[in-house]
Amino acid sequence: MKRREFIGLLGGAAALPFAVHAQSPAMPLIGFLHAGSPDENARRLDAFRKGLAAAGFVEGQNVAIEYRWASGRTQELAAMAADLIGKSVALIVTPGSTAAAVAAKAATSSVPIVFSSGTDPVALGLVASLNRPGGNATGITSLNAELAAKRLGLFRELAPGLTRYFTLVRPSSELAAPFVADLQKAAASLGVGVEVLKADTSDEIDAALASVPQQAGCGMVFGPEGFFYIHRQRIAELALARALPTIFDVRDYADVGGLASYGSDYFNVMEHTGNYVARVLRGEKPADLPVQQATKFELVINRRTAKALGIELSRTLLATAEDVID
């Protein structure tokens, strides 16, 4: 080998490490899929990012997130899931959106999915079992659809004068059937009945609430439903205008004027979801990660609404509540 060629070869070899070090590894890309909109879920999104950051992943620093929000148009979730898969995301996360989780699972059996769901993920077909998910999905279940008995019992204590109970469900929702089944079972054990109203559009929500007799003794129990969550302000206002006591699954309804809520602490669930995403990003397989169940639950009461409805709150309930909104 000629001396000039040898020197050139050395020069190329010496330059190679600098070229390699100059190229930063690509950040993993998370596909974020949700049936709602970013504005209404801002605080929950903050909690998700908090959980992700606590596990070592900070958006924009060492992980990127591609967002897809359906804003109530759940029929668009399938196309959004397919779009995210086409972008070669490392995983799809569907925090607090059962409809998005179902759409993602239907779209792929290979891309990892981390969900948080308001009902039993086994019944939804997301996993084979809670302890051994067995497929490409795992996550957190809040079990808010299965808390109907506890919610109804608290409602009866909160408003003891109620004699007629209603509930509102979205017929097209995966959450409707398990919630209604649990609620009717709980009601039967207490010797009361529940009348089921249905709404798939915002106009139908208005019509359903207007159909409840505007008289003392009527109350409405709500379960988990992302579509109703989008319209929570309107629901709370209509219920109050009709002097209709209400109890919901998450505190956000009580925050905007609903009488009360009882369910899992969704901010805690969102943080745990972020933690699970980090574990999958580090190489753990969803099939081997047991589905976690929510362990923190909260009763929230809006004292202003109670006063407007003429409801006198017992000291026991006030002491039991995680938060009382004045």
Can you put this structure into words, describing what you see?
With 326 residues, this protein is an alpha/beta fold. The protein is built from 13 helices and 13 strands. A 7-stranded mixed beta sheet has the order 7-6-8-9-10-12-13, with helices on both faces. The protein has a 6-stranded parallel beta sheet with strand order 2-1-3-4-5-11, with helices on both faces. Helix 4 links the parallel strand 3 and strand 4. Helix 2 packs across helix 11 and helix 5 packs across helix 6. The protein is elongated.
Summarize the structure.
The chain is 42% helix and 18% strand. The protein is of the alpha/beta class.
Integer average pLDDT: 89
CATH topology of the largest domain: Rossmann fold
The helix/strand class is: alpha/beta
- CATH level-1 class of the largest domain: Alpha Beta
CATH architecture of the largest domain: 3-Layer(aba) Sandwich
- Tell me about the largest β-sheet: 7 strands, mixed
Unreliable stretches = 1-24
Fraction of residues in H or I helices: 40-55%
The CATH superfamily of the largest domain is identified as Response regulator
Which geometry do the CA atoms define? elongated
Find the count of extended strands (DSSP E, 2+ residues): 13
Order of helices and strands: HEHEHEHEEHEHEHEHHEHEHEEHHE
Number of domains: 2
